[in-house]
Amino acid sequence: MQHLHLSQQWQCKQRSATQTLEDAFASAGDWLPATVPGSIHMDLLAAGRIADPFYGQNEKELQWIGEADWLYRCQFSLPADFARDETTELCFDGLDTFATVWLNGMQILCSDNMFVPYRVRVASLLQPGQNELRILFESAMRRGKELETQYGALAAWNGDASRLYVRKAQYHYGWDWGPTFITAGLWRSVRLETFTARIADVHCPVEVSEDLSSAALPVQVQLASAQATLSSNLMLRLCLFSAAGKRVAEHTLPATEPILQHTFTLAQPELWWPRGYGEQPLYRLETTLVIDGETLDRAEERLGLRRLRLVQQALVDQEGTSFFFEINNTPIFCGGANWIPADSFLSRATPERYRAWLQLAAEGNLTMLRVWGGGIYEEDIFYALCDELGLLVWQDFMFACGMYPAHEQFQASVQAEAEANIRRLRHHPSLVVWSGNNEDYLVAGSLGTYDSAFDGDFTQTAFPGRTLYERLLPTACAQLDPTRPYWPGSPYAGSDANDLTLGDQHVWSVWHGQMASYQQYDTFPGRFVSEFGMQAFPDLKMIEAFTPQSERYPQSSTLDFHNKAGGGPERLGHYLIENVRYPVDLADYVYKSQLVQSEALVSGIRGWRRRWAGPQREYSAGALVWQINDCWPVVSWAYVDYELHPKAAYYTIKRALASFALGLVQGQQDTAELWAVNGTLTALEADVELRTWTLQGECVGEETRHVTLLPNQATELGTVPYTRNKQLVINARLLKDGAALARTALWPEPFKYLDIPDPEIKLAREDDTIIISAVRPAKGVLLSADANVSWDDNMLDILPGDPQTIVAHGLGTAAIDFKRLK
Questions:
Q1: Do the Cβ atoms of 71 and 12 come closer than 8 Å?
Q2: CB 689 within 8 A of CB 732
Q3: Which run of H or E residues covers position 354?
Q4: Cα–Cα distance between 629 and 51 in angstroms, integer?
């Protein structure tokens, strides 16, 4: 097989309404260099035709780009040794979105789905010497409006409702955390392939035995060839290698049929585990197509061998059923976050940037990322890194917040989209569930159009999308990926999509809805909370990079513009007013909004992880923060900003999801409730040290309790005397052989009523190691430095007699500054 990547010599320009297409493509004027993969916005920016889309309020001035049609062209020559007598296919991995393609003047393709890759046989159209590709990208906004007029307007939350008819990343239409940039262009690679025979698909649905002692690897290979029949001397060689690179099995069979099968069986396989539960060994399956000793094609898949179940069973003492993922017979508490696309302009999300993001997620003790349904089926590198790092993936199909259509043409497009992406992603061990959509059942419920008892023709109802989520998509998953569970939507729980006793939940009573206090998260006890969140400002340095000097204050028009949530500034202000003394300047606003976000998210995580109470008491099995990342510089729910600066919540979430964690919360009358979580698979004998302090630094209570923490669950540890109105702070430490495995502190709330004296914080440093101590209780100590520092911990509560040691990688000789709650 030969490949010719067509990533060079591309040009682009806006289509003129005064010229025919032929004249526009042929004319020499107005063409700009184009990048492939890329997008029209980035090409215009590189050519100096537009200002930075993310700066200030430039977004408003750039909407014309999404309303225009765009032309792309590329001239290329075939190498002298390019075999035109074999089968040659032109392969497009991603066209965004309404694209018509011509090769040497002949139309070869018309696409309307950003998520569908295409292969077109073109040998008869190629010519010696110069060849030309031309592509017309029509405005997705205009085409969507035309479809909306044809089929009727449908309800949507976020963005222009015409998006529902367009199979394009829905966040491009604007969301409550993202800008409106209707992109166009070749967003993934394009190439020519020529072959006699090739490996079209490899599927290996691993089956690990119930006792984990063996694994079956049924390999199915689909071939494509230039001839009507495959040659008798064509051979397929299968080789299986261990994670260490040792060949553990091989088999060769004649490739005389288009579909070939063989099953490998392994005894005592090396099992793949989520991070925190074990290692992530990846076997390598190498598939080679050979004729007379010559290699025609080769494919390679990395396989993680693990046993997977989604468990929904009766619980002790509570209604409903559990909803948890079991890996290798081990129930997994999924502490994690939601993932949106890493950029508004997808080509800027480089492999290095993906690695930086996912390394942050893993080092932050996340177990799961949910790929949200309004973005994209992520790049291969995303899932490969999740495999390596042990990050489980909840994968939505790309439908979000709307009443999607289901007419025949739309269903056919979705069918092609689903099949292509299931085939591409199904071998990743990190991917543990397919989910039909994001919040579409909630939209239908809000409109009164969801009747869970109806089982007829959904296309004739006011909720036609059900035919996608309950028939088309589960059928595709069952046929192409039968070992992985499918779930109709997120959230989904039958007749009430957000039922707290079944399925998964989006808990938005805090922030949205009645704007409940975040201290009330424990009154929303979902079985698996797949969304909850609180906004915060991003890093001050990033704010300075996207705002003019005159707009750098908390309620400036630019900062309000960079908060896309409906009523976002007001809601954020509400939670600040409820909990802390209102900020006095921008730096204080950044700090206090991050402190409030930190307290809120950890309140939810601790409360739900506390409900992970052991076998048949898996009352809450997941807590996925909305969201870990941003696609542009913005005030949002992300707890790591667009430039990968962790907000304060990153560190408190990291501690709340550590292998060992402590919890303290105000109880009834004059008590506090104490519990601990052991996230390991081994019981722990340890001590809990409890000290109660006045804000002036006087210790007024002290005790030590010996505790046994059962594996993989929370353990209730009784109550502690505590009177909130006396303004006391309880410091709890989990100690093993004198070393602190976990800490927590209970402070009286709201913080705004506290008169906190100077805690006299002291910093001692040696190279990159810092020891921080205080004479009196200090709340929310957030360290910073004028250097590119990676902190292994931060946003600390420092109590007397309990110095904490942290490492600041890259600190060097930079000065350290800190903020604290005052």
A1: yes
A2: yes
A3: helix 351-363
A4: 24
What is the rounded average pLDDT of the residues 203-222?
98
User: CA triplet 106, 112, 118: central angle to 5 degrees?
Assistant: 60
Type of residue found at 364: G
Q: What phi and psi, each to the nearest 5 degrees, are found at residue 517?
A: -70, 145
Return the exposure string of 377-410: e unless at least 16 CB atoms fall within 10 Å of the residue's CB, then b: bbbebbbbbbbbbbbbbbbbbbbbbbbbbbeeeb
Are the C-beta atoms of residues 744 and 720 closer than 8 Å to each other?
no
Q: Which is it for strands 762-766 and 769-773: parallel, antiparallel or unpaired?
A: antiparallel
Which H helix or E strand runs over 317? none
Active-site annotation, residues: 439
| pLDDT tens sequence across 641-668 | 999 999 999 999 999 999 999 999 999 8
Strands 796-798 and 762-766, how do they pair? unpaired
* Residue from 519, 494, 513, 493 nearest 504 by CA: 493
pLDDT of residue 377: 98
Residues 601 and 639: beta-carbon distance below 8 Å:
yes
| pLDDT attached to residue 674 | 98
- Is residue 86 pLDDT above 90, yes or no? no
Q: Which two tokens stand for residue 812?
A: 């060097």
Cβ(632)–Cβ(54) below 8 Å: yes
* Closest C-alpha among 644, 628, 58 to residue 365: 628
pLDDT at position 230 over 90: no
Q: How far is CA 427 from CA 237, 414, 432, in A?
A: 19, 21, 11
Q: Give the per-residue pLDDT at 583.
A: 94
Q: Determine contact, residues 661/742, Cβ cutoff 8 Å.
A: yes
Mind giving me the DSSP string for 776-797? Answer: S-EEEEEEEESS--EESS-SEE
Task: Please say if the pLDDT value at position 724 is more than 80.
Answer: no
Q: What is the DSSP string of 508-576?
A: -TTTSTT---GGGGGGS--SSEEE----B---HHHHHHHS-GGG-STT-HHHHHT--STTHHHHHHHHH
Distance from C-alpha of 175 to C-alpha of 568, rounded to nearest angstrom: 12
pLDDT (mean) for 237-241: 98
Strand-strand pairing, 431-435 and 486-487: parallel
Angle at which helix 473-480 crosses helix 408-425, to 10 degrees, equals 30
Beta-carbon count within 10 A of 704 CB: 12
Average pLDDT over residues 443-461: 96
Are 173 and 165 in contact by the 8 Å Cβ rule? The answer is no
**pLDDT tens per residue across span 290-316:** 998 899 999 999 999 999 999 999 999
| % of the chain surpassing 70 pLDDT | 99
Q: How far apart are CA 819 and CA 796, in angstroms?
A: 10
For residue 163, the model assigns a pLDDT of 98
Preceding omega of 263 cis (within 30 degrees of 0): no
